[in-house]
Specification:
eight-stranded parallel beta sheet; TIM Barrel; 16 strands; 11 helices
Length: 377
């Protein structure tokens, strides 16, 4: 399988943790279709940890918990596929998953067959309880070989939190995306700590192997399994905007059945999603501003000669945030400038920016613009 742009979908963990069920997955699938999330590009519904029984069957196979999934995993896969979406599942490199359910250590080939036979399209593979005498790259490569042996295309999501020099081998072992950070929490501090930790690593991400900064907490509003105070709408807007600029996979973590209209519009924003899904997959350029810690600005090359720019205000008051075009290499001789479109509104801005891109930005918010380089004279 060739994964040319970052995967998009939904994952159960952030809101529901172990409180998952067949009904929840079906209702989530239906909501994603009815609310236009599928058509916006979100295609995977990933069932995270706690889906199985605590013991394997007599033949060593994983077993879905019949109290949670009375019709089994294949039934869910068939339903999800009938809605034009894809099913993701979860396992772990160790003998146990992070929540203490059976992991795949020494059962990789039988588990891969289980996933393939049940119509699974995506595997999130965690790193808890990994044996210290076996390198992480070996354990992940083993599961990739097992997935390949099934003959089914299954997206392989490495979730080892950036440990064991992951950036050196994630692509080599067949990872389609790799978790480069610890777990995200529903707080602005967590969001920004994760983003800042990856700025120097974005150049390592690209088609077939994407840097995954963890699932979205947009719209959780301090409800769910990773609650940590919650965020304002502007803070969630910064979260989504920066994940799109960095081309991190977009896995919704809130309850899509009850998401409000404002948050739904953000998650479906076609301008931001187009940046996230840009086939060029170029890393962001960090502009060396006078106050990068408080007002960071980023630029990004897109396909077809276009560009994206983000202006973030981490301060506690409204600010005018700016990006000096000389800092990203534009000659300030008056011959060239940028014509911009506001990614919030889709509005074409009726002026050419020759030396500075600047905008008023609310506290903890981000504004994103898409632009074309134009000849002025």
């Amino acid at each position: 399988m060739i994964v040319r742009t970052p995967p998009m979908g939904f994952n159960t963990w952030n809101t529901f943790g172990e409180k998952i069920s067949e009904d929840l997955i079906i209702e989530t699938c239906d909501a994603m279709v009815e609310k236009g999330l599928r058509d916006a590009g979100y295609e995977y519904i990933v069932i995270d940890d706690c889906w199985s029984l605590r013991e394997r069957d007599a033949e060593g196979r994983l077993q879905a918990d019949p109290a949670k999934f009375p019709h089994g995993i294949k039934y869910l896969a068939d339903y999800i596929h009938s809605k034009g979406m894809k099913l993701g599942m979860y396992s772990c490199v160790g003998p146990l998953t992070c929540a203490g359910y059976p992991g795949s250590l020494d059962h990789e080939f039988i588990d891969a067959k289980f996933f393939a036979d049940n119509g699974v399209d995506y595997l999130k593979y965690d790193y808890c309880y990994h044996p210290l005498n076996i390198e992480g790259r070996t354990l992940y490569n083993r599961m990739k070989m097992a997935l390949n042996a099934t003959g089914r295309d299954i997206v392989f999501s490495l979730c080892n939190w950036g440990d064991d020099n992951l950036l050196d081998w994630a692509r080599a072992v067949g990872g389609d995306l790799y978790r480069s950070t610890g777990d995200i929490c529903d707080s602005f501090q967590s969001i920004m700590d994760i983003f800042k930790s990856q700025i120097d690593n974005f150049a390592l991400s690209g088609p077939n192997c994407f840097n995954d900064m963890d699932m979205l907490v947009c719209g959780m509003n301090n409800v769910g399994n990773v609650s940590a105070g919650g965020c304002t709408f502007d803070e969630y807007k910064t979260h989504f905007s920066l994940w799109c600029m960095a081309q991190s996979p977009l896995m919704i973590g809130c309850d899509v059945r009850s998401v409000d209209d404002e948050m739904l519009a953000l998650l479906k924003n076609p301008e931001l999603i187009a940046i996230n899904q840009d086939p060029g997959v170029r890393p962001i350029i960090s502009a060396p501003l006078y106050d990068r810690d408080r007002c960071p600005a980023y630029a990004k090359h897109l396909e077809n000669g276009e560009y994206a720019f983000s202006l973030t205000n981490l301060g506690d008051e409204e600010e005018t945030v700016f990006l000096m075009l000389a800092d990203i290499g534009l000659p300030l001789n008056g011959e060239w400038g940028f014509k911009l479109r506001d990614c919030d509104t889709g509005e074409e801005i009726d002026r050419v920016f020759e030396d500075t891109i600047k905008a008023t930005v609310r506290s903890h918010s981000t504004r994103v613009f898409r632009g074309k380089l134009v000849k002025i004279r």
